[in-house]
Predict the structure.
Amino acid sequence: MPLSRRALATAALFAFSLPSLADEGSFAHVSLREIRNNPNGFKNTRVTFKCRLNKTEDLYAPVHTAFTAEQHAQVSGWGAEAKVFISKERQDVFTNLFIRRDKEWLADFLGTPRYSWLMVWGEVKSVFAGQPWIEIYDYEVMSDKHFTDATLGAAIRAYEAYDKNDMESVLAELSRVSDYALPQTDRYHVVKMKAQAAWSVGRDADAKRSAERGLKVRPADPELRAIAEGVAPRSLTGGGETPPPGAKEGEEGAAPKKVEEPKKVEPKEPGEDEGEEGGMVEELRERVARLEKENGKLRGELDAAREDMAAGREMPRRVAEGR
């Protein structure tokens, strides 16, 4: 990704103290999730990743990290993979992003609208409480389109209605969200929810139109493709049908798995040995009889062996080996 003129100018001005931002190859291209899952593995590593901006924070740990309220501003955000309209994922906010207060672009950064998508360049400076603490060296706003509190609120309520199979409420809530005002990833999730809800209540034209918009972002999506082609199942929840957008089996909002009922086994009358089970019982009886017979024979050999030993003769090999 090309760097902004501000980024290049900043790199040149502070080359004596900062890594060269013009040399993007010096930064590991990773996801925020990867860094959070292996913070020690990325300690003292320059990284670049996508994230969604949340807000400023005041959660410093100056005794354990290099960041202080006097020298750094603290902000929080979500990883690129987080679907913020789902409660569990929205609550998983990463708070340990820091910017030096002497950065000339700090005011611009703090003025960036909430929920904006960013590309961040920085370094994992510390690891504390099992979390990475990252200093931001530079950033780029990836799009001027983003959720607002109002549109995200509507998407949240729509997903909650979707989870309850209330598709009319889904469509009512999403009518308040213009997907044209959203960046690609958010647009995809919104139009997929619209398409599935509209299809389930028989609004085929609306469903296909939304599906086509989603396919422009992710052409390989099989559920949207099925709706666009008019072959998707109408029921979107329960019985192993299509799960909500982004949900996988076992995740929040996923359709429950079918649970097969155990086969009913009719009780048999006492002594009944018919069929396969009866044959097995008969076979076991025969084996027991053979073993009892062989056991009696071995006992006889053992008694004879003891007599032979008493008479100074050799014990038979089979008995000696316990066979």
In short: The longest helix spans residues 275-310. Residues 31 and 49 are 5 Å apart (CA to CA). The chain is about 40% helix and 15% strand.
